[in-house]
Amino acid sequence: MEPLIRGRYVARLAAGPEDLSRALALRGAVFRNGADDHDDLDERCQHVLVESGDAVCATFRVALLPSGAALGQGYAARFYDLSPLAADPRPFAEMGRFCLAPGTADPDVLRLAWAAMTRLVDAAGAGRLIGCTSFAGADWTLHRAALALLAERHLGPVGLRPGRRAAEVVDYPALAGPVTDRRTALAGLPPLLRSYLGMGGWVSDHAVVDRDLDTLHVFTCVEVAGVPQARAASLRGI
């Protein structure tokens, strides 16, 4: 992937150990209060940095999997039973460890990150984009309004929803109740999840409690061919 430029920001692939260390430093600050966030999947992924000068404003990693049969090699399969997707012969792109530097508010950072992700998806010919999208804080009641919205409008097709694999899950469709304030519900969605949903994405019918990272996450899937045409053109035009 060639570097992408938007205003003062540049998105590019990590070029070596030094770049990976910079990505890991941001991940550690966001996910682990400064502790090391490196894991065994990092060596099998491509890493994207969005920079402004010497500062890393955002980062994420991408695992490119040749087909649904290879989903077990990815991160999401550690928490979800992905067998309903295993028969898909198309490549998958799994996005993970997405994070923004604390205090980052410029929407161009997120736009550029998604434009880079789009380039990688297109280059791989991926049919689906998947990932685990996290809410900060493992207590599901903190996210009740947003979870109610997911349950009401964004659950995946019954035949494709992942099964349960994690030790601690939340059956949020049964617990969250109805949407009482749509504005509050939308505000409670993490920016990454809002982006997924804006591209027509769907989510699992249960959430996973991750005590290690103190997060609550849902499996998220986007059918690449189903992304609204205007949104796809906008991302490819950056």
TrEMBL record:
Annotated source species: Fuscovulum blasticum DSM 2131
Sorted UniProt keywords: Acyltransferase, Lipid biosynthesis, Lipid metabolism, Transferase
Pathway(s) of this molecule: Lipid metabolism
InterPro entries from the UniProt entry: Acyl_CoA_acyltransferase, Ornithine_N-alpha-AT
Enzyme type, top EC level: transferase
Protein name, UniProt field: L-ornithine N(alpha)-acyltransferase
PANTHER family: GCN5-RELATED N-ACETYLTRANSFERASE, L-ORNITHINE N(ALPHA)-ACYLTRANSFERASE
Family: Belongs to the acetyltransferase family. OlsB subfamily.
SUPFAM superfamilies: Acyl-CoA N-acyltransferases (Nat)
Catalytic activity as recorded in UniProt: a (3R)-hydroxyacyl-[ACP] + L-ornithine = a lyso-ornithine lipid + holo-[ACP] + H(+)
Domain of life: Bacteria
E.C. designation(s): 2.3.2.30
MF GO annotations: ornithine-acyl [acyl carrier protein] N-acyltransferase activity
Function: Catalyzes the first step in the biosynthesis of ornithine lipids, which are phosphorus-free membrane lipids. Catalyzes the 3-hydroxyacyl-acyl carrier protein-dependent acylation of ornithine to form lyso-ornithine lipid (LOL).
Alphabetical GO biological process terms: lipid metabolic process
Pfam families referenced in this protein's UniProt entry, alphabetically: Acetyltransf_5
